[in-house]
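hey m, so remember when u said the tokens were messed up on ur end? i reran from scratch. heres the input so u can diff it against urs
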Amino acid sequence: MAAGLPDLVDVQRLAEGAAVLERVYGMSELPRVQDLLAEARGELRASFGFERAASGRAMARVEIHAEPQLVCQRCMQGFAFPVSAGSEVEFAGDEAAGAADTEREFFRMDTGLVSLRELAEEELLLALPIAAACSTPQSCGNAPSLATEAEGSAGSEEMRRPFSALQDLLKRT
């Protein structure tokens, strides 16, 4: 983030002025995504457009763009995962007053101040897959691909059956 720009902002004041803010965060500045990253390099670009919702509450249109280096859950190697996502968030200080009457995501704030970094990080977490995997299994890290294994066994007369010994044991009982 650029020096001198505040992270905590007054969303009510920004909504009154229909402010648009842009921020850039290094992946190393986002503590909640660290466990998902192969490397903490790269950046998260975020844009926040504030305005008043029909309910009268402050809201923001949050858009992010990033290319984090995630860990593939098949081969355990790092790979780039491009992310472009956005959502609308409504802010309220009272939980009961917010969640029921809005179709937007709801963000509860205690002090009237909101961390832009946390909003951007939350949007990134929502956009990431639950179990990250390389886009093409055939080139997934150093792991042998299923297609290669199938081609190799198609030429042999007998298919390898890892549980055939178990089948023999069941026949004996």
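this time it looks ok to me. The helical segments are 11-16, 95-98, 116-127, 146-154, 164-172. if urs says something different then somethings off w ur setup not the seq
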